[in-house]
Amino acid sequence: MGLTHWEADFTLLSDGKDVTEAIRRGVNEIRFTDNGAATKQTDSLDITLYSEVLALPPKGVTLSLSLGFNGNMVNKGQFTVCQVKSSGPPRKIQITATAAPMNNARHGYDATSTRNRTFEDKTLGDILERVAADNGLTGRISASLVNIKVPSVIQLAESDLSMMSRLASQYGAVSKPSNGFWLFLEYGAAQASDGGFLPDITITPDMVSDWSYQEGDRGSDSANSSGKGKGKDDDKKWKVSKPTSDDTSGSIRTKYYNESTGEIETYTVQHDGPDIDNPHTSADKESAKGSADTKAKKVKKAGKKMTITAPCTQEMLKLTAESRITTQGFGKSEDRRWQVESIDWTLNSRGLVASFSLATDIQAAGGGKGKSGKGKKPTFTLEKGSETTH
User: Fold this and answer.
1) Where is the composition biased (Basic and acidic residues) (predicted)?
2) Is residue 227 pLDDT above 60, yes or no?
3) Fewer CB near the terminus (10 Å): N or C of the chain?
């Protein structure tokens, strides 16, 4: 049996114009980082190349990247150039672009700019529709979230990225601008923007060049341990109580205002870990439930982690952040179902390499149908003026 020769390739469009060959002549490295929404970081594209004559792209240019092998290309999304650097000799050009719009001067949109506004008695679908439109994007939201009523949201000197991330933490969701959409989907569901489940694959030791595994402390989560995503909804504000016994069970508690009684009550969820309290009081029971349930999922996801670096294959290219990977043959503890927190795709003279950062899959086995595409959970696309009640 002959060996299949995998020749890595890419295509790059700049504001719709094919610039692949111009970039290919001097390219040193292309690196695309696909971040899961739980990391609270936008997807990014970094291109390094050498050229004495190539003009620097202006900030705000839209780049469209595809990666693949032997002409079989996979679209990896659109990115807005936010930084350009050059140095030499020889003349080296470094281009950085992000999935979130960040150039108000060129396109009129910047999801990182701070705003002051209030949303009163709106649904999550209403809020997402407005925020997405304000940033030149189309909102897509899980059906289970679209009609949830939000009594009040105050955006005070806060960016749209930060506010939507805060709402996601409160209502059991993940928020992420990606490829022309602003996604607001169920946390941990491995759900694609069209409502289908993301693809999943099995990885064995013979497929990888490097891997590592770790088990974390009970009660920690990815936001606490990684330092990512600091902001007004920073998970470090949650108070973790030291266990008073060897009992592994504990409670996650969030206080909320009961409008009908005028009293402060507590929503509690049990989990395998210490007692954890949210120091903030939620506006209502729905947001308190979402906040506590999401925290429980984060703690569970962070209990075990694994990183894998591997020569990329065509099957791997179909994966995105939030997809699922099953490890097999690594060891009793290491073999399990994982959810992808982030992927680094690196293309250079050595080929195309994929680096996966994995966290515990909190969904029951069989909960997603990534390979078959069956079992969709509906999402709604929110165009300007659309109805969000279905």
Assistant:
1) 272-296
2) no
3) N
Range list of H helices, 41-108: 104-107
In sign, the C-alpha dihedral spanning 143, 146, 147, 149 is positive
pLDDT given at position 256: 81
Instruction: Work out the pLDDT band at 103, boundaries 50, 70, 90.
Output: low
Residue ranges of domains in the chain, CATH in brackets: 8-99 (2.30.300.10), 108-186 (3.55.50.30), 200-216+303-360 (2.40.30.150), 251-302 (no CATH)
CB 10 within 8 A of CB 74: no
Cβ burial 144-179 (10 Å sphere, 16+ → b, else e): bbbebebeebebeebbbbbbbbbbbbbbbbbbbbbb
Q: Would you state the structure tokens that stand for residue 94, as one six-digit string?
A: 């470094």
Q: What's 279-345 look like in SS3?
A: EEEECCHHHHHHHHHHHHHHHHHCCEEEEEEEECCHHHHCCCCCCEEEECCCCCCCCCEEEEEEEEE
How crowded is residue 137: how many other Cβ atoms within 10 Å of its Cβ?
Answer: 24
Output the CA–CA distances (angstroms, integers) from residue 108 to 148, 300, 385, in the order listed: 30, 40, 20
Which residues neighbour 304 within 8 Å (Cβ) at sequence distance 6 or greater? 213, 214, 215, 216, 333, 336, 359, 360
Q: How far apart are CA 321 and CA 313, in angstroms?
A: 16
Owner of token pair 């007692």: 275
Q: How far apart, in whole angstroms, are the C-alpha atoms of residue 373 and residue 390?
A: 23
- How far apart, in whole angstroms, are the C-alpha atoms of residue 321 and residue 323? 5
Element (H, E) at 248: none
Distance CA 321, CA 183 (A): 13
Taking all residues of the chain, what is their mean pLDDT, rounded to a whole number?
80
